[in-house]
Amino acid sequence: MTTMKSVAEALEHMHSAVGSLTGGETIAIEDSLDRVLAEPVSSTMDVPAYDNSAMDGYAFKAEDVSSGTSLKLVGTALAGHPYTGDCPPGCCIRIMTGAQVPAVTDTVIAQEDTEANGDMITIHAELKVGSNIRRQGEEIRQGEAIYTAGHCITPVDIGLLASLGRADINVRQRLRVALFSTGDELVQPGQTLSTGQLYDSNRYVLKAMLQRLGCEVIDLGLIADDKDAIREAFESSSQQADAIICSGGVSVGDADYTKQILDSYGSVGFWKVAMKPGKPFAFGKVNDAWFFGLPGNPVSAVVTFDQLALPIIQKMRGIQDYDRIALRLQAGTAFKKRPGRADFQRALIQPYGDQSRVFSTGPQGSAMLTSLAEGNCYVQLDAEQGSVQEGEWVTVIPFTSPLR
Asked: Who is most buried in 91, 92, 221, 274, counting CB within 10 A?
């Protein structure tokens, strides 16, 4: 029996059914980009590890030093080469950015606020005690929690882990996703099209999105419209993968082999989701693998993956609190809509005077990938909402990885 679900109901149903992978492995931090932490990370050291200079200049005791005072230069502190001598009253030490501040000093003045005449340095600014010093532990304290389990590692995270001396990290195992397309009308890019044929674009964009997520993609290619071949693809992929994704053949009432074979598993639901683009969607289990069936039109396939399958894929990867940023912006153009389904119109945030507005990318046909390629966000219109006029406030969801 066909069930019309809202986007929220579809997500709730899937979230309640699917758990996270539990396996993990220890890998080098340089290999950890886009992987998900399997355990919390705390710092084993203070950052900075010692008081250091925030700039090139001169270090001295601030007591009795004011603008116009001249100090005698008695030494130099370089990054990695601390100054260990004395700094008597009336003296200063040349210091470079990042160098450890000598214990015999308490203040640093920028080079541009001084004048050098031989080994005499004249101060041309008033300073407070402790100026221009990065204090030990002011960024991170030893034992402080840095990341929680379930955090997805970014390039900056790798740098931060390296700054803490971490050479390796414990992450969740990669999610294995089997991906294939079916349909005799589909042709591999690079081949010649015959009448009635079209190139398989869905598998390519979905594969790229999954790779951006750090998934291990098992690309089964194009599967012919042959019942035995399609059944074998499902059986084979369910033994190799944690999840299976295909597009097309999931519309209620379809008479093709894909739906017939999925019906035979008895644990796949075929839904109508009240969203546009994309209405047909399938979800359930094929043996031990979770299955996501997407519509066949390219934009519908991408948007249903992004809005419905992606949050569940992220949960399976171990990311527990996946969410998106939503903005409120004024429409720079009108957005046409009929009440009935939530609409994810492709749009472009652009400067508008001293602010920003959001503009439609043009025709919104479900086969027109240009509407996505030329955009940087969705304008999300509620199910019962009608058309929007220029200047009205709308909800905007910026494209993020893996779509961008």
From this structure: 92
